[in-house]
Amino acid sequence: MKKALLLTALLAAVGAAQAQSATYMIDKNHTAVTFEAKHFGTSTLRGRWDKKEGTVTLDKAAKTGKVEFTIDMASITTGSPQFDGHLKSKDFFEVEQFPTAKFVGDKFTFNGDKVASVTGELTLHGKTNPVTLTATGFNCYENPMLKREVCGGDFETTLQRSQFGITYAAPVTPDNIRLLIQVEAIKQQ
After folding, report:
1. pTM for the structure as a whole
2. At a CB cut-off of 8 Å and minimum separation 6, what does 22 contact?
3. Domains delineated in the chain
4. Would you state the torsion angle of the CA atoms of residues 72, 78, 84, 88, taken in this order, to the nearest 10 degrees?
5. Number of alpha carbons in the 13 Å side-chain half-sphere of residue 26
6. Interior angle at CA 154, CA 24 and CA 101, nearest 5
7. Residue 189: closest CA among 153, 146, 131, 140
8. 84: closest CA among 138, 141, 133, 46?
């Protein structure tokens, strides 16, 4: 009898723990992926990728989660079609050979009940390296139009492009690239 009660309590605890975990789909309309890079030590070049998708699984109680985020590298835009073409070429992203970049993160840190950072691996240009995205402004809210919870924030990191085999114009063009991800994700039912 005690074993049956213990097993029932254990199963209930496991079920309650799993019930805390929720899946969120990236809201493409409220998510932006941009980069900043110095141009020959002078002005800052900026660009973005327009096509992205992903999911976030978040367990706020256990303070765990997982992110899978994919970027269509051919969707890069800087406002200059000529420069966009150069960035898509073999000199930089080689989008024909490496059409996507993917971040998979499963190490979350929290500051109270807010996500503070996500660490995982970024695969870009055929190479995979560890990356930590630092969060600011993370929050969840009930979206009045969708009648569902939405979570998001601003995440950023600085990448060394040479770690991903992108070395064109080095060392004249700096190795460090600032990556900024503004993201909102909608809780799935």
Report:
1. 0.87
2. 57, 58, 59, 149, 187, 188
3. 21-187 (2.40.128.110)
4. -40
5. 18
6. 70
7. 146
8. 46
Determine how many CB atoms are found less than 10 A away from the CB of residue 77: 13
User: CA-CA distances (angstroms) from residue 111 to 108, 157, 168, 182?
Assistant: 10, 18, 39, 19
Structure tokens, 1? 């009898």
Mean pLDDT by 10 residues, the chain (189 residues): 46 51 96 93 93 97 97 98 97 98 98 96 98 96 96 98 95 91 96
Tell me the three-class secondary structure of the chain, residue by residue: CHHHHHHHHHHHHHHHHHHHEEEEEECHHHCEEEEEEECCCCCEEEEEECCEEEEEEEECCCCEEEEEEEEEHHHEECCCHHHHHHHHCCCCCCCCCCCEEEEEEEEEEEECCEEEEEEEEEEECCEEEEEEEEEEEEEEEEECCCCEEEEEEEEEEEEEHHHHCCCCCCCCCCCEEEEEEEEEEEECC
Q: Which residue has the tokens 């990728």?
A: 49
Phi-psi region of 26 (alpha: psi -120 to 50; beta: other; left: phi over 0): beta
